[in-house]
Specification:
By secondary structure, this protein is an alpha/beta fold. 44% of the residues lie in helices and 15% in strands. The protein is built from six helices and five strands, in the order αβαβαβαββαα. The termini are far apart. It comes from Papilio xuthus.
Amino acid sequence: MDSNDLEAIRRQRIEEMKKRAKLKQEWLANGHGEYTEIDGEKEFFGVCNKSENVICHFYRSDTPRCRIVDMHLQTLAKKHVETRFIKLDVERAPFLTGRLKIRVLPTIGLVKDKKTKDFIVGFTDLGNCDDFTTEVLEWRIARAEVIEYSGDLLVPPAEARRQRALTVHAKKTIREKQDSDSDLDFSD
């Protein structure tokens, strides 16, 4: 590579960064970066038409587990500006909830390119407990390719941490090979 090649790569990278910054401004103008409540089915379809990636929490205000999901999605909305995070009270959208066959609350609908790609129903996919981490929910959402995720999609975050810990312990051996300076000879 010579200096002309490096300069071309640099210009290309600057152009990509400008495009990304412009996209980010468009996303923020469309309500990305926030976790907002929408009023009904009409607004749901409007949001899906404006945004490529949408995460919709179908909830009911008197369901305690829906508040747990709200807390996690509030955090993820700020982190993943590329996706629009919304919530919709199922009582305000009977046609949509019937059409999507939503029977368990909370249900998180993952929409990509105006099509429902996946659903997270209840807490079964999140460890089947109320105290799951935001990281686990982020990983589960990322499996539907609705957010940009840098981790391993095949391994849940807790298991990945355990594997890294085991790898670190495996490297901490006293002696990996026999020392050639030893006075003892075990070759006999």
